[in-house]
Design a protein that fits this description.
By secondary structure, this protein is an alpha/beta fold. The chain has 17 helices and 11 strands. A hairpin with a 4-residue loop joins strand 10 and strand 11. Bound molecules: NADPH dihydro-nicotinamide-adenine-dinucleotide phosphate (NDP) and magnesium ion.
Length: about 375
Amino acid sequence: MKTVSILGSTGSIGTQALEVAKMHKISVRALAAHSNAELLCAQAREFVAEYVCIFDENKAKDVRDNLFGSKIKVLTGDEGLSQIANLDVDVMLNSIVGIAGLVPTLEGISHGTDIALANKETLVTGGSIVMSEAKKKGVKILPVDSEHSAIFQCLRGNDSRQVSKILLTASGGPFFGYTKEKLKSVTKEQALRHPNWSMGSKITIDSATLMNKGLEFIEAMRLFDLQPGQIEIIVHRESVLHSAVEYNDGSVIGQMGAPDMKIPIQYALLYPERLPCPAKRLSLTDYGTLTFAKPDLETFDCLSSCIQAAKQGGIMPTVVNGANEEAVKLFLADKIKFYQIGEFVKGALEAFENRSVNSVSDILRADKEARLYVRDNA
Ligand code: NDP
Ligand code: MG
């Protein structure tokens, strides 16, 4: 029986991962969340976890009271998260949202644990450090993001040196076909309504601005050691082809499936096994037609800024990510308009001078500065 820990267990990915764990009787040793004490406690009891970490120290008392009388140990804050990341488990699923996932990923790696990685911000900001540490430690980074899981699956059984390019698919989000002018009047409700996927609020907004695809572009470069010129983004409205790999001979191998995150979550948790998954099956004849189009880099500033940041390297991917995290927070709090998210991301890219990244503290400093840039200009 596999043992896992789940960081971000109360979120969209975390709760779906628990469904998978339940179906396959995966043992859940530890769970971590930010502040959703009630759900975290209910999950810990149901899965008989040994440890929980509630990051928000103000909620620790609620969790202790709730779990009083059980054997579950309650941890909190950075220290608690670090303890969870240092437990012995077969796989640590990191489904925390944002750059907060970076340090726990690195701790899990240095402990020698394979990482099922949903937290794409880890690779966008700290990708080079994360991948080289994982290599040193002989740790697997198993992608959970559906596109990267698809690419990972399409690379199996082939020689990655014979890859000519990656076709990274994008749903296009709720504002596909919009002009810059039309984006000026979109509301929060519209931006939170994704056509194909039900996800946490931050990634739903990222999908509407196409920042998500920009982050995934950088994520793919880091995970699969690619140059920016080797990744082609293709808008595919139906989210059935989850991405594909083109080889030197022109053969394109793609991975298809119903748009359900439980499939890539399960693939990462049970890797390399394929067992029945609690997800709908794909019926291609229900779709009839699949469509493919080029992305609109003129309208969606977040996407073009990420591609530029990817080409520049250094702190720039962290700068666009940090600016975006802060701008999305302000947008969700009704402090800025939707179109301003793209303006802030692009503005940060132009305002910052690049520096090299040699350590995690270089990354955290750039992140802080990018957030400050947005707050100062909002
Ligand atoms: P959610 O917002 O639904 O969930 C985020 C989770 O992280 C919650 O459990 C939250 O706890 C927890 N969390 C946040 N900060 C901390 C912290 N400092 N310490 C411990 N726990 C923390 O996000 P999603 O599940 O949608 O996304 C998670 C990650 O996966 C993101 O990086 C996203 O980009 C990526 N991803 C998501 C997909 C999806 O379909 N949802 C698809 C592909 C990638 P609490 O509930 O208490 O706030
Ligand atoms: Mg994705």
